[in-house]
Write a structure and sequence with these properties.
The protein is an alpha/beta fold. Helix content is about 30%, strand content about 10%. It contains 12 helices and 9 strands. Strands 1, 2, 3, 4, 5, 6, 7, 8 and 9 form a 9-stranded mixed β-sheet that branches. Helix 7 (about 185-200) packs across helix 8. The protein is globular, with a radius of gyration of 22 Å.
Length: about 350
């Protein structure tokens, strides 16, 4: 319907009608700055890793205090089948203290080898100051006594928040996880059951670098949105094809079957969002993703200059360890963050 044939105002004569028509024409011509800004997705990585202990309730509360739209976190499963929030399949000695209050002497064991009771005895409220990992996060404030939370505890926290955040849950499994993680389909089913039991399926996305659990989520719970993660780097490359022409991370899907288009492959996997290592993104890839109807949410972006460049390219959101920096930048750019 063209502007020339449609007017929201009743027919009238005189200056008032002329003014109304002029205002309406200006509205049609103006770019939708505020609509686009309101949709921007500010995701707090592992809560707010740069500011508070990662994947802890203290970290998630900090992210909510800053005003994220989405809490991003990682899923692991205990030996007795409880979903908990932890990035590393094996206990990370840079983060974890035992029941005796001492830092672990070495990495491990796997969370999947421990019961929930054993996991809950561990303190993850600060970084080992002698570790190289701690030097990466000088602004992180400790919160001694924080335990590895369950997914249900995160659901409770999110339900109590105003406005309620979205939750972006990463299934931590790889093609070579073996016994350190649940079998991918079982992991996916457990996540779906937890989301459905909590009644939060309309505010959850499930993501993974390993697309096998994502295909299972799409099969058993098409109402839950999925996010395809990718990275192309020297120490990790989930896109590079194996001898059969398919990446072992992509559940048998072949890039060549989709014209070599990674966004096309993401769409074929049933994901509505593509979340890539931010250094792998280009303006052309943003355009390709948009042509596939995908949302683009790079990870993990911590420098405001990089954030600004990606926002200018037209990304739909960013995942960051410093949601305070991104929030300030969005305000400076006139891009308010609103609930989705």
């Amino acid at each position: 319907m063209s502007a020339a044939r449609f007017s929201p105002f009743p027919a009238a004569r005189g200056g008032r009608h002329t003014l109304r028509c002029l205002l309406f024409a200006l509205l049609l011509a103006a770019p939708p700055v505020f609509a686009a800004g309101a949709a921007f997705d500010l995701q707090g990585h592992r809560g707010a890793r740069g500011l508070a202990p990662e994947n802890t309730l203290a970290g998630f509360r900090k992210a909510l205090e800053i005003g994220v739209t989405t809490l991003e976190t990682d899923l692991a499963m205990t030996r007795d089948g409880v979903l908990v929030l932890a990035h590393d399949p094996l206990l990370n000695r840079d983060i974890v203290r035992g029941a005796d209050g001492k830092w672990l002497a070495s990495a491990g064991p796997a969370i999947h080898a421990l019961t929930l009771d054993e996991v809950r005895r561990l303190d993850v409220g600060r970084l080992d100051p002698a570790s190289g990992y701690a030097s990466q996060w000088p602004e992180q404030k400790p919160a001694d006594g924080e335990r590895i939370p369950t997914l249900e505890e995160l659901f409770v926290l999110a339900r109590a928040a105003t406005p309620r955040p979205w939750l972006n849950l990463e299934i931590k499994v790889t093609p070579t996880s073996g016994e350190s993680a649940p079998e991918p389909a079982r992991f996916a089913r457990a996540a779906v059951e937890a989301v459905r039991a909590a009644g939060v399926g309309d505010r959850v996305t499930i993501q993974s670098f390993d697309w096998r659990p994502l295909l299972e989520v799409r099969r058993i719970a098409p109402e839950i949105a999925t996010v395809c993660l990718t990275i192309e780097a020297r120490n990790m490359n989930t896109v590079q094809a194996g001898p059969d022409g398919a990446s072992p991370w992509h559940a048998g899907l072949r890039l060549a079957d989709h014209g070599g288009s990674l966004p096309g492959l993401v769409r074929a996997a049933g994901c509505g969002t593509w979340s890539m290592f931010w250094r792998n993104l280009t303006p052309d890839l943003v355009a390709q993703a948009k042509s596939q109807g995908l949302k683009v949410v790079p990870w993990t972006v911590n420098d405001p200059a990089d954030m600004r460049r990606l926002i200018d390219w037209g990304v739909d959101g960013l995942i960051t360890d410093y949601p305070d920096r991104l929030r300030a930048l969005l305000a400076e750019m006139g891009r308010p963050v609103a609930p989705r």
